[in-house]
Amino acid sequence: MSASNPQRHYLVAAMAAVLALGTAADAFAQARGASERRSSSRQQQEASAPKADVVNEYPAATRKEPGLRATPRIGPQINKLSEAQQAGDLAATEAAAKVILDNDKANAYERAISLRLLADLLINEDNARAADLLQQAIQLDGLGNNEHYGTMLAIAQIQLVEDDYTGALATLDRLVSETRTEKADVHVMRGNALYRLERFDEAIAALEPVVKGNPDARPDWTQLLMASYADAGRPGEATALAEQVAAQVPGDKRAQLNLANIYLQADDHARAIEVYERLRQAGELSEDRDYSNLSALYLNTEGGEAKAIAVLNEGLDKGILKGDYRTYASLAQAYYFTDQYDKAIEFYGKAAPLDDDGSTWLNLAKALANEGRGADSKAAAQKALDKGLSNPEEARKLLAR
Fold first, then answer.
1. What pLDDT band is residue 43 in, cutting at 50, 70 and 90?
2. What whole-number distance in Å separates Cα of residue 347 and Cα of residue 300?
3. What radius of gyration, in Å, describes the C-alpha atoms of the chain?
4. Chain CA centroid to CA 218, Å
5. Of 271, 277, 219, 223, which Cα lies nearest the Cα of 249?
6. H-only helix segments in 198-283
7. What is the pTM assigned to this prediction?
8. Residue 5: predicted pLDDT
9. Which domains occur in the chain, in start order?
10. Which of these ranges, 35-49, 91-105, 144-158, 161-175, has the smallest mean pLDDT?
């Protein structure tokens, strides 16, 4: 073959985005959001009626319980507000809350619980207003400790969802300082905020006590610690945790892909391929990026082109991979470097019109020239020039033959 060969470059840019460890933190934030809102709603409902057997969730808190409750005068109005809130009627909830907040006789507890009930209905609909109402409830200082610090947690969760990681950390630091709480959820939320602020060593310090050695640690907590290890430049610890999570939840595709990413960061492509192949054999490669990533791993492995071809064709046959530039160009290159030149030419021909510039037309022109198809090569070289090349000299040489 001539030395004039198609440039060898593999399409792996999408892989880092797909397997980024930051997804663990994202998933955690989403899960915590739903959980925290449900918890907040329950606390608000329970707060409107006194109970004798309420468990003190913050026994070490330095804040003294205000000891305020709903009065007979305002209690029925709070019940009306709660009913409107539970019905999801924002207009009725706002109207009922306004009646209480405008009443000079309402105490700090009654005002604060009204703000909480209204805020709960606004979460995810108007987070800025919800957070403002919750801050007002905190400032009134009339709620019992359970509700007061539950409100802080709700504020922190909103701040996390809204990417205000500095604000979330400040809220959680205050909560921990005032309560000395050992609640795992609180410390994981704090670790999440630190992780998002790229304060990885501090995130590890927050997460390790509630994850390591804890049989009840949730997989997403462990994944967050794993991500912190990886981004802190501690690959050994990240790998150990990734393997632990993957073993605990073998059916969790995200956990398996995170493990593959850890191996990739350690340049251990063979073990990353093993993870992908297990998923493939289990029928878990269900998205186009799954097949693209596995094929890219093979293309970046010495002698892996034949396996890449098999993976790409399987994805196409199943209708999971689309006939797009990335797939066609990957197949063209894999066929070329396994000396299947007719197939390479076929797929360069499919990929070239889909490329943003003329580089794939140029690869096709080179492949055609190497096969002695001079006229076809010149036609492809001209198309490469017409579409645009950063360095047109190679195309001009082909045209001058």
1. very low
2. 19
3. 30
4. 16
5. 219
6. 200-211, 219-231, 235-248, 253-265, 269-281
7. 0.69
8. 65
9. 20-197 (1.25.40)
10. 35-49
